[in-house]
Amino acid sequence: METVSYLFDLFMHIDVHLGEIIRAYGVWTMALLFIIIFCETGLVVTPFLPGDSLLFAVGIFAGKGDFNVAVVLLILCVAAILGDACNYSIGKYLGPAFVEKNRGRLLKKEHLDATHRYFDKYGKKTIVIARFVPVIRTLAPFMAGVGKMTYLDFAHYNVVGGILWVNVFLWGGYLFGELPFVKNNFTYVVLGIIAISCLPIVYEVVKHWNEKRKNSNS
Length: 218
Hints:
The chain is mostly helical.
């Protein structure tokens, strides 16, 4: 329970925690940011790590001069791209047997089903679109590896998606982080980012649940 409380506090006050880390570790903070973004996108069991809100907060601190914006952009784009590449490799190595064995345990069935529907609807573009959807962001490259998408196809969409995702949220924080409304209501801004990011997966889960209910009643 303490871990859950800590993670919730980290999400809601990531600006405060990031400021403390910068003061304590200086330039080495970039190494920590690299690790977090890499793990959030690269390890199928860590979708709970902050992604969108962390990038937004990094943008705010870059706007204040705590980070060189060009350097931190490069580092986090590389982290996002390498993370997805690692996740793809894990999926390709473990294969469908791992997915079926851990469905409902390590891998929640509704999340896997939602990811499958994204691939059915958007095809390879899912790798780009998923960057902006928590949980799906972590599962999409893994399932691309499981589904035997060629690495060249995956790499193309991975690079585009990684660069786009990091730039959208980091520049969002950089450009708007000093606005009085954002500074005075950062917790609500983070909640808004999380809520908007989660809407697509909530929609997919509810849609799938309604379809199952209709089929069972027919």
